[in-house]
Amino acid sequence: MKHQHFALDFLFFALGTYFSGLFFSNIYSTQDTHSSQLCKLINEGGCPSFSSDPKVDEEINQIQSSYYRTYPFEMRRTREQSTCRWNYLTSKHLYEMINQEPRIGLNGMWRSEVEQLNKFAIQVLSKETGRSNYVMQDILRHHDPYEGVRYLLNYHQQDDTSNWVTVELARKYAAGKPNLKSVTTEDDVIKPINIVMSLSKVSSRFVNFLTRYERTILPRVLRHQRRHHGGGGGVRMTIVVAAVVGADSSSDATDTMHTIDNFKSRNRHCDVTNYVITRGFYNKGADLHDAILQSTDDEVALVVDVDMHITWEFLDRVRRNTVKNQRVFFPVSFSQYDPDIMEGAAKLDSSLAPLVVTDQEEEEVVVNEERGFWMHYAYGIVGMYKEDYLKVGGFKLDIKGWGVEDVDLYKRFVSHPQLQVMSAIDRDLVHVYHKRNCDVTLELIQYQRCIGAWAEMLASQRQAGLLYDDLSNKSSSKNFDHFLSS
Length: 486
Fold this sequence. Notes:
Elements: H1 2-42, H2 54-65, H3 67-70, E1 85-89, E2 93-98, E3 101-105, H4 108-129, E4 134-144, E5 148-157, E6 160-171, E7 179-186, E8 193-199, H5 204-227, E9 235-244, H6 250-266, E10 272-279, H7 284-292, E11 300-303, E12 308-309, H8 312-321, E13 327-336, H9 339-348, E14 372-374, E15 382-385, H10 386-391, H11 405-415, E16 420-431, H12 444-456, H13 461-485
Parallel strand pairs: 1-16, 8-9, 8-11, 9-10, 13-16
Antiparallel strand pairs: 1-2, 1-4, 2-3, 4-5, 5-6, 6-7, 11-15, 12-16, 13-14
């Protein structure tokens, strides 16, 4: 009960802070835009003079004429990253945030489109392979305003789930029938993945990550090793343990290394590389940079956080969607809400009870509007090749503390003319809820993003409304009783 009251207090504080910040930032951004346009109309040379020094006026005009200087640095909104966004569909569902619902059943035009694509692709596969016993697993759909719609349909055979086939189709708006672009067959030899992480100390989140990895990933690794008589099993980990000079972090680093070494001793067939890097301040981007450089040229470097619940199926999609010298993959995770708040709301409305969950270690990923949302604005999880990572310049290496380094890398990939960026929902990737401590010493933009991410992860609209109404009713009742007693 004490934890629930604490969570509720911070829920209303965080929601108020976050949405107030969004409101005023939009006002200021609009004012800046209108002011800049007005200056251009009044004076072709720029805004009117505000000082007696012409050099200062020139510098002001140069700043105002630059997009990157005029507008505050913000993460991309969902509508602004539409060029990189792919829809994710199965034969039954569309995974997308529509009316606060993260997954909807296919009907109408969506069902018709999927059925037409599947029928066409099966015909293609029958001609190409002479077999028609393929089962569609999912579809990735990309909408381009100039090129039309592009599809990637993934299949495996009914009697052999280890061999995958991807059929790439395209459709112009003027033509109703899709056109075949390519058919890619993947045999049982899978792409190797190097999972890279950075952390500073042992936490329950990290221990839980290792437990889940041991339970869900390692059995598949061992199966792959036995099938191929040894080898790496298709996946390994590189973990950088961060220590700060002069801080009381040496014991944390030692404990973290000890935890990882114990994990390795229990799982002899697991390939894990771990080492300590000491710097003057915590620098996640630099640590991940060093870990990515440990990847071989043919490995997919997959950056993940310890908060993620990953599965073998998720790793398979990373392999298929990451293409060397062509495409990098930014999967979108399902972010869980605060279990304390979910439990409190369920006590007020019993109909919520079967929809919410408080057991964060459940095996099955359950997606509905009361358990979480698709975190489109997060770019911390990325699959790429080392060559492509270096091609764009890698992480920004001088950022202190939490956040921003992932957004910067995303923008670099988007800006590169030779690389495609695929940002798509992954139905098996879950961000496990955890309490967030936003350090007030962070840079302003980092602190704002920390608070914003924290506020959005707390509760659904329905849960927040129930708890707010309950709190308001209790407050009104208390005030009324006080009035009667006086």
